[in-house]
Description:
Blueprint: E1 32-36, H1 41-54, E2 57-64, H2 72-81, E3 86-91, H3 93-106, H4 118-136, E4 141-143, H5 152-163, E5 168-170, H6 172-175, H7 180-189, E6 204-208, E7 211-215, E8 245-252, E9 255-259, E10 262-263, H8 266-279, E11 284-290, E12 296-302, H9 304-320, H10 323-341, H11 348-361, E13 366-373, E14 376-383, H12 408-415, H13 417-428
Parallel strand pairs: 1-2, 1-4, 2-3, 4-5
Antiparallel strand pairs: 6-7, 7-12, 8-9, 8-13, 9-10, 11-12, 13-14
Amino acid sequence: MSVDPGNANxxxxxxxxxxxxxxxxxxxxxxxxxxLYSGGLDTSVMLKWIQEEYGAEVVAxxxxxxxxxxxxxxxxxxxxxxxxxxxxLVDARERFAYEYVLPAIKANALYGGGYPLFTALxxxxxxxxxxxxxxxxxxxxxxxxxxxxxxxxxxxxxxxxALAPDMKIVAPVRGWQMGREEEIRYARERGIxxxxxxxxxxxxxxxNLWGRSSEGGKIEDLAEPTPDDAITxxxxxxxxxxxxxxxxxxxxxxxxxxIDGERLGxxxxxxxxxxxxxxxxxxxxxxIEDRVVGLKVRDLYEVPAAAILLCAHRELEKLxxxxxxxxxxxxxxxxxxxxxxxxxxYEPLLADLNAYMDSVNEQVTGSVTVRLYKGSVRAVARKxxxxxxxxALATFGESGGLFSQHAAPGFIELFTLQSRMAHRLRAxxxxxxxxxxx
Length: 438
Ligand code: ARG
């Protein structure tokens, strides 16, 4: 039920909800709305609903981030059929790869130790394109199909508000009281075609060049092992080839540029890595996640490209960085991943962290060979002109004065001084940390 008693539609189950923030659009306040349109049930119902409830024109925008198997011309046609005054398709694959996935590679970004952030990386780009197109078409509001339970609403709205402070936002799913049944009835009554029939899809899917996620349905039963039918991109590791495959990834300043000696643009390289990894059952992640809005969720991720490229990138970095850099960077990577997960793409701290990641990646040139075998990825060979590695250094007579094993005992004496002193004193006082108690 709507909670706003002043709203004439208060008893209408699918009327807009009361507003909490000033940026939420009220009916009558907006004349033309840019809708982030996927062609699915929610956003198709929305396309009509905005016209009916807000009396506004709708411009539909669909963004191509490399979602496999999507026919974007069909999606555009459907938007026009549902009364959109215009329907725009933007191919943002190059921008996504170089401006969003590449920084994530440089930051070895994984949220919660397993999620390579593909959705989280896509949202600020989608929202910034929405702002560009809204301004181009003279729209005063942007509408999206996110629910009130997830991270995506935070990511999209934070971006819009950062880039266009005066833009109004409409998030109908958050306010309307329609469940799937009511949406289907709404769609039927208005002749909205329902893609894939009225049968509820088993999972909620989101995908792009950097990965694919499934949520909901059987996945919510935590006691059940990963449902086989939710894994559709990656081969079941049990069915993967019986022979391992070695794949060599070449990097220039942190950017992957070639696979097995073949130079590729980043979009194509990500697609190639996805195909090779998927064939070997690589990159299945069954993940419990803490959402920004407090809820816990279980997600199934299929991220073969990330599994291969992050493994190779991390290995190369370890080789060209100093030990101190290698100790600090994961701490900053964790911060980077959290900011991106939380949708704070325009937070100045993220720019600071990117400057650090770029600086480190200046050295990340060379190649790493990974071995793929029935779901596993492991580095087996490395090569770099920037490697801080010289096996001759620790050999007598060949160090050229850079390393002397004779100096080692002096080093050990000084290096361990405080630890030894504390251990002895505390043992004498019978204190914890003295070593003998326990
Ligand atoms: N849990 C992931 C995230 O928050 C994936 C979300 C997928 N989004 C979706 N609408 N199905 O980034």
